[in-house]
Write a structure and sequence with these properties.
- With 452 residues, this protein is of the alpha/beta class.
- Strands 6-7-8-9-10-19-20 form a seven-stranded mixed β-sheet, covered by helices on one side.
- Helix 4 packs antiparallel against helix 8.
- It is globular.
- It binds zinc ion.
- Zinc ion (ZN) binds next to loops.
């Protein structure tokens, strides 16, 4: 939260994710009065950045939420989905409580609460400065992370200061990568006096994204040769669209056979529609691809089917030919992916392809760690399918690019505040930046305040 000239502006309003017992109170109770905020600025739609907005509104926030138009659209469907998960979760706990004679629990927020956020979104164009509160001008620039993602440039002119010099605080949001499918590259910071910067992968450089595409090609080719199916648990927003794009390119150029591809997750299907509705976010390569008009649409090609209904999803079980199924959730903990795993995990012709980091104690993690047996819906299954993992598909900057990002501020920056990463990456990145001559780096604690 920023306090500028007596106004209060919140950057992001994310959800702590994890077990209910660990996170519920932390999400429920804000350490400030939401009714006294003047504005909220949202960098992108991922739930760890947007997911507590329904609760903020429920607790009395009544101002604008400034964000890109694509982020507003994506956040709408993601918040409704999140609310649905909260409701199911509360129902499950209440049901368990009832058996023990304990009272029912409330969801953090409901679908109705989430639907009330939409009216607060105030879409802002990229690169168009907007005065948000007196003396605070905000400009969104491309972050190259997911559709609509932005870095937030905050130009601040303090009331009554003797020298009316503007100060610039640069908030990185989540920093994407160069050459990700569909999206423009991240804009490097310029003229920043202070920077709040993410450091998720501050301790490791990423592989070239092309290596990940090479691995994807190899996995599909050998599975199809065995007559098997490739089952991919993937996050519905971002990763699914990247995979669809990569598979389309590989098929188009004949590098993989033209087998059917199914995207089987209602959220992923809706998110893909929103991607297509925002061509203003696409990079030049994708724009050209659309202009050539050789294809039905971006994120749509002849072999690709988006399945919406449960019946369509179930019908896939009966089909025997090689195919690729991309389904949510990304860590295989819930959603339709679990049905596909049940139906395919015991056949050695198939491949389960893990394409992102898997949190401890999730089904995805147990698969990635090559457990021989796993539990799904309370039943034990032998893992006879091949399990393959592809790294390097991350939508976050690796250490190299984080260093380059910070170095872009070197001439002007007075201090960099590292956020969004665990302690190890923050320390590793701090050491790297000090080697490059950037001395003033802080890794603030929760609830710490700083005067700039
Ligand atoms: Zn993100």
């Amino acid at each position: 939260m920023l306090e500028v000239n007596g106004s209060r502006v919140l950057l992001e309003c994310g959800l702590y994710q994890g077990r209910r017992g660990d996170t519920f109170q932390r999400n429920k109770n804000f350490p400030f009065d939401p009714a006294k905020l003047d504005a909220v600025i949202l960098s992108h739609a991922h739930i760890d950045h947007s997911g507590n907005l329904p609760n903020l509104v429920k607790c009395g926030y009544n101002g604008p939420i400034l964000t890109s138009s694509a982020t507003a659209h994506l956040a709408n469907i993601m918040l409704l989905d999140s609310a649905h998960v909260q409701e199911m979760d509360a129902e499950y706990v209440s049901h368990r409580n009832a058996k023990k004679g304990l009272p029912p629990v409330e969801p953090l927020y409901t679908v109705t609460d989430a639907s009330l956020v939409a009216q607060h979104f105030d879409p802002v164009d990229y690169d168009e400065p907007v005065e948000v509160t007196p003396g605070l001008v905000v400009t969104l620039v491309d972050a190259g992370h997911i559709l609509g993602s932005s870095a937030v440039v905050l130009d601040i002119e303090e009331n009554g200061s003797e020298i009316r010099r503007k100060k610039r605080l640069w908030f990185s949001g989540d920093i994407g990568r160069r050459d990700l499918p569909l999206l423009r590259d991240p804009v490097l910071p310029r003229q920043a006096d202070w920077m709040i910067m993410e450091c998720t992968y501050g301790d490791k450089p990423h592989n070239d994204p092309q290596l990940a595409v090479d691995e994807l090609r190899a996995v599909v080719n050998r599975t199809v040769k065995r007559g098997g199916k490739v089952i991919i648990p993937a996050f519905a927003v971002g990763r699914t669209q990247d995979l669809v794009y990569d598979l389309h390119m590989l098929m188009e150029s004949g590098q993989i056979p033209a087998v059917p591809v199914f995207v089987d997750s209602p959220l992923a299907v809706n998110a893909s529609d929103i991607y297509r509705a925002h061509p203003e976010c696409f990079d030049e390569e994708t724009q050209k691809f659309i202009a050539q008009d050789k294809h039905r649409a971006v994120l749509g090609f002849d072999r690709l089917t988006y399945t919406r209904s449960v019946e369509e999803s179930k019908a896939l079980n009966g089909r025997r030919e090689p195919m690729i199924i991309i389904s949510a959730a990304g860590m295989a903990e819930n959603g339709r992916i679990r049905h596909h795993l049940v139906n395919n995990i015991e056949n050695p012709a198939n491949t389960i392809l893990i394409v992102s980091w898997q949190a401890p104690e999730t089904l995805g993690r147990r698969l990635a760690e090559r457990n021989k047996r796993v539990m799904i819906f309370g039943e034990s299954y032998e893992v006879r399918a091949e399990v393959a993992t592809i790294g390097g598909l991350s939508a976050h900057a690796g250490q190299d690019f984080l260093v380059e990002y910070a170095e872009a501020t070197q001439a002007t920056v007075r201090e960099i505040f590292l956020v969004h990463g665990e302690q190890n990456p923050a320390q590793a990145l701090t050491a790297k930046l000090r080697e490059k001559g950037i001395e003033k780096i802080a890794y603030p604690d929760l609830h710490e305040s700083v005067e700039i």
